[in-house]
Amino acid sequence: MTHTLIKLKIFILIKRLAGNRLGSQLLRQDPAKIISNYARTVTLKSTPATAAIQEGHDERNMRLGRPQSPHLTIYRPQLTAMLSISHRATGIMLAGYIVLFSAAAVYLECPLEYYIEQLKCAEIGAGNIFFVKFLLAFPLTYHFWNGIRHLLWDLGKFLTIREVYATGWTMLAIATASAVALSGMS
């Protein structure tokens, strides 16, 4: 492209951007004067690219003199964080239950009810059976009631700090009571 063609294109662009009212005033002026007033020349200097330094996060922070972040060791565990972590953990446990009981149903010779009946006949003791039932039931009740709590948050309810803590303690009490009730069933 020639230099005058570039100037003409810039002039047309300025006229379009300025609109009809200002554009008609611009047309009366010399295009070279308009370009010198509204468009400035730019000179680019090329430099060769430098190779990126291959270093890890810690090495980069040490090179830049950044302090090490103290992480979890300085913080007191908070109810909200513990409930969030345990919600994920109970979800993982429930997925493990599904895999374990599905594999047992497929690979064991007798139905699952047979093995449950064998445990009852083994005279392990009512307290031990209750404890095992509780360990199996609590992840289910905890995940269920905490999921309801999350659904209430999705509706915009109980979102202040005080309400989050109150619903957390209430959910723990209801989940524990539900697990005890399920464990007591025969």
Automatic annotation (TrEMBL):
GO biological process, one term: mitochondrial electron transport, succinate to ubiquinone
PANTHER family: SUCCINATE DEHYDROGENASE CYTOCHROME B560 SUBUNIT (PTHR10978), SUCCINATE DEHYDROGENASE CYTOCHROME B560 SUBUNIT, MITOCHONDRIAL (PTHR10978:SF5)
Transmembrane regions: 89-108, 128-145, 166-185
Recorded topology in the membrane: Multi-pass membrane protein
Name of this chain's protein: Succinate dehydrogenase cytochrome b560 subunit, mitochondrial
Species annotation: Hypothenemus hampei (Coffee berry borer)
Keywords: Heme, Iron, Membrane, Metal-binding, Transmembrane, Transmembrane helix
Residues making up the signal peptide according to the UniProt record: none
Pfam family, one: Sdh_cyt
Domain of life: Eukaryota
